[in-house]
């Protein structure tokens, strides 16, 4: 513009030609106030006829090249990793569920279970060898080697197998299930065709507040998202920023994943990531309602996008924020019928909530926080470790009972399911801080007992629960001590039989890490029968599900005595999700099941 004006005012000279450039290569121009609000609504998007294929690398996207800055790191050229072929002689290396179509919702569950099992095992080996690295990245690379992923094709809108409100503890998990295919970049895009026009639109964003970005994340139904490009230069309408602008113009949905601080973790070391502990909450579908440029804290222009949550979706971030409020102030929880069911016996009060009917509270019983088994008459001596048992210590007697390895990671997460997990006991010299006393340190979660709509009372947690984390113990009396007549209609009886199939499904595949398959000695299944009818704890309120999110594990302490029943998370569990386990099918009575799972068997064991 300046050049044209100079030419017009010159004395008879030829006009200078304009420097014509493609429109998308030009930086956006905004008024001096740095504000811009489009005055028209985005047009309705025509149907999609093509979505670009999934790619985990920012360099392989069909979208424009990545920008500089934290959210879109510079691409380093690396040789392509060759996918390993699994021979027919290695059937255990590939879970059977991967033979299903990639849009099978169950594939997501298998992918996440396999990834976390690998990550736990890699972390266990690293702790033994005193190696510091990112086990989540190593597990992700192993999954990529074997092409173990779900939803490989990028898509606009929902992702099969991923529900609104699901939580993830690692960015790699988002990538493996096809929710957000960028391991670091905050904006993911794909090329779609609108009629005969191909354009890159945003398919998902991760808002974590990291890297100095000024996202406004307090509202539960809206989000102001800062564009990519860092805070040390004026951001430009290109790459991911341009994809968000195209989503605004086309009116396409954008998946929003909120990065939140893990309230159950006080340090990064407890998660085994080597980085800050965060949880990624899938908050559903949003649409870009407007965008503008604003001056950031560093004085440079920052592109900002306002995204509005679409209606008729399950609550996700709203539920998270409500649970955080109740943890700070339990009195703020509405519909409480009893402030503390445990009467101070647990580290945190356990309220009883009924938002369904007029039932006041559960029938009276004697609350006991822990089961006190009789002292064993004999048994093996305890370990002689000082302070705490250390991974890789060949002299630890308790490690030898567990096959030579401690069963828990440094954060107290169970690494593998076994017929019996042996913890340190009263004869051991290690202290209470020992990792091999994970279930002896009390309940860490904040529970509530709530009234369900069709299954009586249930149990859920205000805290998110990580896969493999200790949930609670089942406290009760041995069945043999009660009259048989009283057992017939006992709805609070636990009758469990350890399952080798369940262990194999949850544990990692050794072949994926080049290890020989573990040959655990064949032993008769562990059978436990307890009743919490007269005396028990919160576990007595856990209902049955044919697709449970909790499993039970027999845990022995010391060298003798009967094993105790401990519950661990089978997968990541969002706050305010009912905790359930599989009652099994081997009892004296079968009862009609109303769990609502897609895998419902129709019946379950009624003791």
From TrEMBL:
Any one biological process term the GO annotation gives: methylation
Cellular location(s): Chromosome; Nucleus
InterPro entries linked to this entry: H3-K9-MeTrfase_plant, H3K9_HMTase_SUVAR3-9, Post-SET_dom, Pre-SET_dom, PUA-like_sf, SET_dom, SET_dom_sf, SRA-YDG_sf
A molecular-function term among this protein's GO annotations: histone methyltransferase activity
Domain Post-SET: 589-605
Chain intervals with Low complexity compositional bias: 47-67
Keyword line: Chromatin regulator, Chromosome, Methyltransferase, Nucleus, S-adenosyl-L-methionine, Transferase
Superkingdom, taxonomy of origin: Eukaryota
Pfam families in alphabetical order: Pre-SET, SAD_SRA, SET
Gene3D superfamilies: SET domain, SRA-YDG
Chain spans, region Disordered: 1-26, 47-102
SET domain: residues covered: 445-584
Protein name (Swiss-Prot/TrEMBL): Uncharacterized protein
